């Protein structure tokens, strides 16, 4: 049977899939985790371009920027301590997301959301009150813990709560929250840098406490996923009632049976602790593991850190003043939010692969164009002429548009769809962890690469964009409309991955694999 046939069978599988108010409310609260990550993702680039912030915490960078006319335009912000301010969040998020795997499985998806929100709230308070670099780094570490817990648990919650045919659109709520938060961060930065007393950066850093409080409190007013209730040995009747409320119908028997069967094949004793982390490296999980790890890493190779996180720094590099650079970054974020809204109703119709291809073409063309403009119109010294700076801003908007409906949301959505229950939490943890670790590495290296590659950095990411688009073409099957419990059919039909998928009944594999472990008491 082809992948299309599998999709048609599953869509006609007897499930009544409706959009209910409880479903929307629950998913919007969970997706608000994107506000946490998006705000932190967007605030750091603007804050590190504020003169008052640099003067207080990074006086060496500030002095070089203001006084040393011999320093190349591409190297003015090349400070490993300055980039550590950004990357420390992702490093701590790497470790937190691995711990979150066990917590999310053992104590539930909502537990990890509340913990993540609490970490971010505390980190934001310390950051807003910072008086030295050590407090800043501590703040970023706590924020990273929160982000690690949040991304891991929210993606699992949304994948298990959303109906199959609307999963892409519902997941896009998360990315809308993320891009909106980056937009808000740019607005906050633009306003706070105008405070003449020079403490506006405290508002920028401390405001992260607001979305953190919303997520932590909101998680007390939404139901746990039926999958989590059943997996943790909860009341089947309770899971049934939650499922009925989410779906808006009492006809949930078939879906409930599938959830019970999946949980029976993945008992808690084999899905907590190190067991799933060890299990996921087995040959039959190779397709999910490779895709689940590759997409978050490839997301960073698309060049988003260069144009997204460091947009204000980039605009300072080409000669714009502090206020103008933040305003230009704000324009790119408005573009991202608009593109995300456009993609929401289409992602479940056109499919994941088509958006990867369309976005990949946009990103490749924009990166090559931006590199050509920088190569011909920005030297090591002086500034770029106004008309070319405006063209470059337009090119950046095209890049952000393409990223916002392809490599922005899809590396979060697709890995959340493909893992079977017994390794779902572990799979997302590994993917999130390595994605954050690679983000940390790229953040730490970005200004260094900009300094030494100069305009060539755009061609560097353009080359990667071509390669990863080819990877998607050959190795990523279409997942739209398929139920989580039936996703393994894709790998059995795929030209390459089918040789890794073992046709032995899954419950026999699990039982034989679990025999070497003692149950968790």
UniProtKB/TrEMBL annotation:
Residues annotated as domain Major facilitator superfamily (MFS) profile: 26-480
CDD domains: MFS_STP
Transmembrane residue ranges: 21-39, 81-103, 115-135, 141-159, 171-191, 203-222, 289-311, 355-376, 388-408, 429-449, 455-476
GO-annotated molecular function: monosaccharide transmembrane transporter activity; symporter activity
PROSITE patterns: MFS, SUGAR_TRANSPORT_2
Superkingdom of the organism of origin: Eukaryota
UniProt keyword terms in alphabetical order: Membrane, Sugar transport, Symport, Transmembrane, Transmembrane helix, Transport
Membrane topology: Multi-pass membrane protein
Gene Ontology CC: one annotated term: membrane
Localization terms from the record: Membrane
Listed Pfam families: Sugar_tr (PF00083)
Family matches, as PANTHER family: SOLUTE CARRIER FAMILY 2, FACILITATED GLUCOSE TRANSPORTER, SUGAR TRANSPORT PROTEIN 3
Family: Belongs to the major facilitator superfamily. Sugar transporter (TC 2.A.1.1) family.
Protein name: Hexose carrier protein HEX6
Upper lineage: Eukaryota, Viridiplantae, Streptophyta, Embryophyta, Tracheophyta
């Amino acid at each position: 049977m082809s992948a299309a046939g599998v999709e048609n069978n599953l869509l006609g599988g007897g499930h009544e899939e409706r959009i209910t108010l409880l479903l929307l409310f629950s998913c919007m609260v969970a997706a608000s985790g994107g506000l946490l990550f998006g705000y932190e993702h967007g605030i750091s680039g603007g804050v590190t371009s504020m003169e008052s912030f640099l003067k207080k915490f990074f006086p060496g960078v500030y002095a070089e920027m203001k006084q040393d006319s011999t320093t190349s335009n591409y190297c003015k912000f090349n400070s490993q301590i300055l980039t550590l301010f950004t990357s420390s969040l992702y490093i701590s998020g790497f470790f937190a997301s691995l711990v979150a795997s066990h917590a999310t499985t053992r104590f539930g998806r909502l537990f990890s959301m509340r913990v993540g929100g609490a970490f971010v709230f505390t980190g934001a308070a310390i950051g807003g009150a910072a008086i030295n670099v050590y407090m800043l780094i501590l703040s970023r570490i706590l924020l990273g813990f929160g982000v690690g817990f949040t991304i891991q648990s929210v993606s699992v919650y949304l994948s298990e709560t959303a109906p199959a045919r609307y999963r892409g659109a519902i997941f896009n709520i998360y990315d809308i929250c993320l891009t909106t938060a980056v937009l808000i961060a740019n607005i906050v930065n633009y306003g706070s840098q105008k405070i003449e007393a020079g403490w506006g950066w405290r508002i920028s850093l401390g405001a992260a406490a607001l979305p953190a409080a919303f997520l932590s409190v909101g998680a007390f007013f939404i139901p746990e996923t039926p999958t989590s209730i059943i997996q943790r040995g909860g009341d089947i009747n309770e899971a049934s009632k939650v499922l009925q409320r989410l779906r808006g119908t009492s006809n949930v028997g078939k879906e409930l049976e599938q959830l019970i069967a999946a949980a029976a094949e993945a008992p808690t004793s084999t899905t907590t602790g190190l067991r799933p982390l060890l299990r996921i490296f087995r040959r039959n999980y190779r397709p999910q593991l490779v895709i689940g790890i590759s997409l978050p890493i490839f997301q960073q190779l698309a060049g988003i850190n260069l144009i997204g996180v460091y947009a204000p720094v980039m605009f300072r590099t080409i000669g714009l003043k502090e206020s103008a650079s933040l305003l230009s970054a704000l324009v790119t974020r408005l573009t991202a939010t608009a593109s995300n809204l456009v993609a929401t109703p289409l992602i479940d119709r056109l499919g994941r692969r088509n958006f990867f291809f369309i976005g990949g073409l946009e990103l490749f063309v924009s990166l090559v164009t931006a590199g050509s403009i920088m190569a011909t119109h920005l030297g090591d010294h002086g500034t770029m002429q106004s008309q070319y700076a405006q063209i470059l801003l337009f090119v950046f908007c095209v890049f952000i548009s393409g990223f916002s409906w392809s490599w922005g949301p899809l590396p979060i959505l697709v890995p959340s769809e493909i893992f079977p229950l017994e390794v779902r939490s572990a799979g997302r943890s590994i993917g999130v962890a390595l994605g954050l670790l690679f983000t940390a590495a790229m953040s730490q290296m970005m200004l260094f690469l900009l300094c030494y590659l100069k305009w060539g950095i755009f061609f560097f990411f353009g080359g990667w964009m071509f390669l990863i688009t080819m990877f998607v073409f050959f190795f990523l099957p279409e997942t739209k409309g398929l139920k989580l419990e039936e996703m393994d059919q894709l790998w059995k039909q795929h030209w390459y991955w089918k040789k890794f998928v073992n046709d032995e009944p899954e419950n026999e594999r699990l039982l034989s694999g679990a025999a070497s472990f003692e149950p968790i008491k």
